[in-house]
Amino acid sequence: MRRFFRPTWAEIDLGALVGNLRLLRKRVGPRVKIMFVVKANAYGHDAVLCALAAQKARAADWLGVSSVEEGLALRSAGVKLPVLVLGSLYPFESVLAAAAHDLTPIVASLESAKRVAEAALRLRRRIDIHVKVDTGMGRIGLRPEAALALIRNLSVLKGIRVQGILTHMAKAENDAAFTGRQLSAFKRVLKALDKEGLRPPLAHAANSAAALRQPASRFDMVRPGLAAYGLVEGFTPVLTLKSKIVYIKTAPRGATVSYGATWRAKRVSRIATLPIGYGDGYVRALSNRASVLVGGKRCPVVGRVTMDQTMIDVTGAPGARVGDDAVLIGRQDGAAVTAAELARHCGTIPYEIVTALTSRVPRVGAGR
Ligand SMILES: Cc1ncc(COP(=O)(O)O)c(C=O)c1O
């Protein structure tokens, strides 16, 4: 564990993480594999910590990352599970590094397929790939007809095996009709491939929302991120963002707090300072909006969040003193501040709140 003095850290409850993955497994059934998505440092939860916990508990079959770099970091930490690189392979030099470390690339164009074939020839080994089909996300991915044509072409190429085929859902959390159309397009491709004996062994499409809401989206494997981190109802939040009060003072009525003097005390107030700010990913948009838990009480953030420090009004938590724990995301004595709540304050989504946490915040594994 990294040594740190500044009392600001994120606790990662690995027991909760494994529990969430097991719950997902129960919901999708034993025949459907689980690709645990650990891109963007496991949505800010520490990819190495989370991947090793999932591997040890045999709670995931695959891992999903966004880049070769993210995959290499897992491999150097001893992660042995199959890893799919979900992002674009461009620039193609990364193919060799990916293949050398058993990272499975996604192919979404004839050009990238050719580069993988060249790498296979050079390394004198077969490279497994997954072909990405765009059924409505409009990001990387071949249109269904082009995907069919590519897989037909690849079936005669020696160095490549099409192990998987995937698509990605654009609106699974709130639009069953749109998702249904995406799934129909994907199924048509699979059916055509099946007819020609070319259906790859692993077809996958579902993010958390689709996996939980649309059983028809599960195919051979699901790719949860959000639910695994407990950021979906019914799952246990994995991350607790904590700090400690490092300073308290009494502000007279009329006193202002922080840059721009945007908050003014309407009464004599006790103002506590926490050593966390937007330099840690506790974003400035939370200024004068968010609450922080101290002694199980919700204490409002007052004034602007600064780069390194944030002030809260602890007048409503009379026992508060220097050294007390402050929970910025998570639970304390029955009270809770969720990533979803912070996201609403900022007009964004919980994904952005947790991935915003910077490397300055030590992640501490707990709960196992
Ligand atoms: C290709 C792909 N699959 C799966 C996921 C996981 O999605 P979620 O976190 O909503 O479960 C993502 C995340 O954005 C993704 O980009």
Structure description:
The protein has helices at 14-28, 39-43, 47-56, 68-76, 94-100, 110-123, 144-154, 176-195, 208-213, 339-346, 350-355; strands at 8-13, 33-37, 62-65, 83-85, 103-107, 127-132, 160-166, 202-206, 221-222, 239-244, 247-251, 256-257, 263-264, 269-274, 291-294, 297-300, 310-313, 325-332, 335-337, 363-366. The two termini are 15 Å apart. Helix content is 30%, strand content 25%. The chain is α/β, with parallel strands linked by helices. A hairpin with a 2-residue loop joins strand 15 and strand 16 (297-300). It has 2 domains: 14-222, Alpha-Beta Barrel (TIM Barrel); 239-337, Lyase, Ornithine Decarboxylase, Chain A, domain 1, CATH 2.40.37. The longest helix is centred in the middle third of the chain and has 20 residues, at 176-195. An 8-stranded parallel β-barrel has the order 2-3-4-5-6-7-8-9, surrounded by 6 helices. Strands 1, 10, 15, 16, 18, 19 and 20 form a 7-stranded mixed sheet that branches. It has a 3-stranded antiparallel sheet with strand order 11-14-17, with no helix packed on it. It binds pyridoxal-5'-phosphate.
